[in-house]
Amino acid sequence: LEDLEYYISAQFSRQHRTSTLVICIFGRFVRFLHVDHAGVSVSESTNYVSNPRVLAEFLWRYSHLSRIQRGFDPTVVPATPAQCLLLTKAVTHYIRSAATSFGADPKIRNTLAKDYPAYKIEMVDEFSSKRTEYIVRKPFAEPSRPLGRATRGFVALRLDGEDPDETPASLIRRLVFLKDYWRVPSTTFQKEFESYRTLEEHDVPHIPTVISAGDVFTGGQPQRTETQRMLHSKGVKLTNPPTTLSPFVHHRIVQQLGLPLDTLRNAKDLVQVMRDALQALIDGYVKARILHRDISSDNILVSALEDPEGLRRGLLNDWDISCTVPPGCTDVFPRSVCGTWRFMSCELLYLTHKSHEIYDDLQSLFWVLVFVAARHFKHSG
Question: Could you give the CA distance from residue 128 to residue 378 in angstroms, rounded to a whole number?
Fold first, then answer.
């Protein structure tokens, strides 16, 4: 089963899919699997030697499915060789220009891995309805398993043309961060880009600039998982049946490019970046009444471009599970498990019924500082 999970994860990583169909053959027996980010639906075991019609009919039906029915995302198509070359040039130019500013090579070099194909993604902004195309290759952050939110982070090139003689500086300015994930639809929480809009309206500093965002649509409807619809279907047998199974909706957000904390040169720069993240966290809570709830080393970035003072500032990213705190309250309604385990506050880990408060996020920020400083910089410990 671990091997099967690995193969499915690799397929979702290298292909832009909403779901996939899998044939599992064990000796004389076969099962068919439907996998999406909400769960796995498994057929009954069938002896395909004594009853070959079942496997033959599955293959015949599969051969007549459209690409959308096979689980491919229609908003993504293979990039042309010219578009792939543009992405390579932009990333290469950026790495060369950043070589003198960072203590380690930016991880965006991994986006050019040759074992990953390049794709063109069409984004439609939910507010302006503006269509923009981006070229991506290997995600520099991806999940280890196919189920759940399946967040992938790409260094992407905004496609404004394919001029082979475009200057390096112009290409670098077109590099952005594209986040692709599956969100849980909720009437309680805002969408991530709505949280960013609220933060911007309240002049909260040190948050990424959102360029484009919105749910991914196919045929006028947002892309949703299908497994939850099968939960109560006739003839379905459940193993450890859940009381509910949340659907997931495909969502993308494009922001200014940020780099991970391990690209910083020294501990002084780290403290500056953490100070910026602290200011964003506190102002977000005090001014906009928004609680982040997922402070981690992956969610604090370093701006890829310098500010007018020649500094690269910190950015508090990933407000996708943030929530609004009602006036007069200090915490968030009944406890729901949120955050990255290694950075969660001690009280959240030990007190199962504790509500999430700003003090928990402040403690998480401290643990991030200790973790990154101890792991990436020389010390006497």
Answer: 48
Judge contact between 151 and 126, C-beta under 8 A. Answer: no
Residue 224 CA to residue 111 CA, distance in Å, equals 27
3-state DSSP call for residue 85?
A: helix
DSSP label at residue 224: B
275 three-state secondary structure: helix
Give me the count of residues in the chain.
Answer: 381
Reported confidence tier of residue 133, pLDDT bands at 50, 70, 90: very high
Taking Cα atoms as reference points, which of 143, 103, 136 lies closest to residue 120?
A: 136
Sign of CA dihedral 264, 100, 86, 173: positive
Q: Which residue has the tokens 């990933």?
A: 318
Please tell me the distance from the alpha carbon of residue 36 to that of residue 225, in angstroms, as a whole number: 6
Predicted TM-score (pTM) above 0.85: yes
Residues 6+ apart with CB under 8 A from 344: 360, 364
358/36 Cα distance (integer angstroms):
34
Per-residue pLDDT reduced to its tens digit, 175-224:
999 999 999 887 777 888 999 999 999 999 999 999 999 999 998 899 99
CB atoms within 10 A of CB 31: 14
Q: Which two tokens stand for residue 298?
A: 């992956």
364, 346 Cβ separation under 8 angstroms:
no
- Joined together, the tokens standing for residue 69 give 């029915």
